[in-house]
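Supplementary Note 3. Input sequence used for the single-chain structure prediction.
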Amino acid sequence: MKRLFVFLGMLLTTFGTQAQHLEKGLLWKISGKEIKQPSYLFGTVHITCNAIIDENVVSALNATRQLYLEVDMDDPALPSKMMSGILMKDGNKISAMASAEDYALLDTFLTEKLSMPLALADRFKPALLSMMLTNVVLDCQPQSYEQELMQVAKANNEEIYGLESIADQMAVFDEIPYDKQLEELIKMAKGNLAKEKEDFIKLLEVYNSKDLNKIMKLVKEQDSEITGNEDIMLNDRNKKWVPEIIAAAKNTPTFFAVGAAHLGGENGVIVLLRKQGYTVEAVSN
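The predicted structure, written as discrete structure tokens, is reproduced below.
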């Protein structure tokens, strides 16, 4: 199940064309227009060493009546739905795309790191294999903010929903050419995850600063074909989510939790909601 969370993982006021500079904060209150009771928006990092949520986040959860994550991670059918989207389309295989040398390298690498010979993952989207390696990068037992939030929601007998389906989330990785995904995976294997460990330490450091501007700067500095693809990984999804967020918040006080990189920037959820006339303000956290 932990690998599932890694997958989903893996998977961070001016309305002009200038980059949006937002005050510090990971927890934001949404109000105004047709919203009778406030809803809340929280930026997470999907996998971390310490996912303890603070009092303000718990208070916001207690003040709302339902929880929305990127996908409904409480859906018992989620693992089977995920498996239907994990494979490359059109019968593509890593063995047909990689050189014999690179295939051997990946086979040894995945067997060592994931106890998964490449033959078992030959049709997997390479980007998803890269995300599965996230828990190997951590020098700790992986924890998930989403899991912590779900525990509170369940204790409050609240329903849990998703802003997108797992099929939508998996389809994102069909928009990035498979050969580019494979290049990234081979690069990880050749570097034995050294750069990924360094990048993850930097990510957690920036996340803990609660500075969305720094998080967006880090996103823009990514040299990865996958995580650095801002439109596919962030902007396009943000635009689809905002109508869902507005509709849910109008009807019921709701706690929304998505990756923190989705919050900041001119195409981030906060600015997109403000452009629709809603008040979105940071809560001390």
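The longest strand covers residues 35-44. The mean pLDDT is 89.
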